[in-house]
Amino acid sequence: MNKLIPLVIIIFMYPMLFACASTSAKKDITTAPSFKFAEATLTKRLYVKDTTAVPIEPTLTFSTEDSEAISYVKLKNLAGEHKLRWDWIGPKGEIYLSSGDYTLSASKGKYKEEVVAWHRLTIRGDRASHYPGEWRITVYLDGALIIQKGFLILDEKADEAH
Question: For domain 36-161, which CATH number applies: 2.60.40.1930, 1.10.2020.10, 2.60.40.2950, 3.40.50.360?
Answer without folding.
Answer: 2.60.40.1930
